[in-house]
Amino acid sequence: MKLSHALMVAAFLVPMAFPAGLPAAEATLSQPGRIRVLVVTGGHGFEKPQFFQMFKDNPDITYEAVEHPNAHAKWRPEAAKSYDVMVLYDMWQPISEEAKADLLALLAAGKGLVVLHHAIASYQEWPEYAKIIGAKYYLAKTVVDGVEKPRSAYKHDVQFTIGIAPAPHPVTAGLKDFEIHDETYKWFDVARDVTPLLTATEPESGPVIGWAKTYAAARVVYIQLGHDHFAYENPAYRQLLRQAIRWTARKD
């Protein structure tokens, strides 16, 4: 029996029980009234000029880029005073207890968080990270509460349609369903407490691929899209990123 897309989406939002760039010096100058963004990369290759062009073209922000292994120093209390929102585009695993505590403190203080594409797979051995972002991508086959989870899958160069969830939200305001050429992910878990923003019916993709949520005092957005220049140069993707930054910064 064929399920409706709505039922497929609902079925995919399961409770999660998880098992126990550029040099840092590259930055735009701070400008009054603009959202200050820290862009974190490292651990996964990407097209740097085209990626950072999205931030250069965003009139709402100034930004600083930092790459692992130097990124966690930017979570220290003094360093964190220089930005309002973190954009994670990394895929990094090592994290100290100090860095964990620093990130949790930033979120408790309401620092905005936007998580893009492969950053869903960071910090596999830290269960709290999955709770922060609202999902778990499995880099290896895993057993969770007696249930075997397959390794999550990806596929490059897929042309597919992104559905905009019907419930109004500032992150998707003004957007309609759109086409994109991008990498897909599937077989990752999404928490029930997220607000779905983006959906897909492509068989190589999970049905819910973008969402908003809160963690402690922070607003959090995850957008699964964003592998290369085909996404970076897509006007709808750029609008999503811009509006996600604004919402997590509490500007909308």
Please outline the helices and strands.
Elements: H1 5-12, E1 35-42, H2 48-56, E2 61-67, E3 85-90, H3 97-108, E4 112-116, H4 127-133, E5 135-136, E6 142-144, E7 147-149, E8 153-164, E9 178-186, E10 189-190, E11 195-199, E12 208-215, E13 218-223, H5 229-232, H6 235-248
Parallel strand pairs: 1-2, 1-3, 3-4, 4-13
Antiparallel strand pairs: 5-10, 6-7, 8-9, 8-11, 11-12, 12-13
Write a structural description.
- The protein is built from six helices and 13 strands.
- The chain is α/β, with parallel strands linked by helices.
- The protein has one domain (5-248): 3-Layer(aba) Sandwich (Rossmann fold).
- Strand 12 (208-215) and strand 13 form a beta hairpin.
- It is globular and about 45 Å long.
- It starts with a helix and ends with a helix.
- The model is unreliable at 17-26 (pLDDT under 50).
* Form type: globular
Broad CATH class: Alpha Beta
The helix content, as a percent range, equals 10-25%
Rg from Cα: 17 Å
Count all strands and give the number.
Answer: 13
Mean pLDDT: 91
**Main β-sheet, spatial strand arrangement:** 2-1-3-4-13-12-11-8-9
In the residues, how many domains can be counted?
A: 1
The CATH homologous superfamily name equals: Class I glutamine amidotransferase (GATase) domain
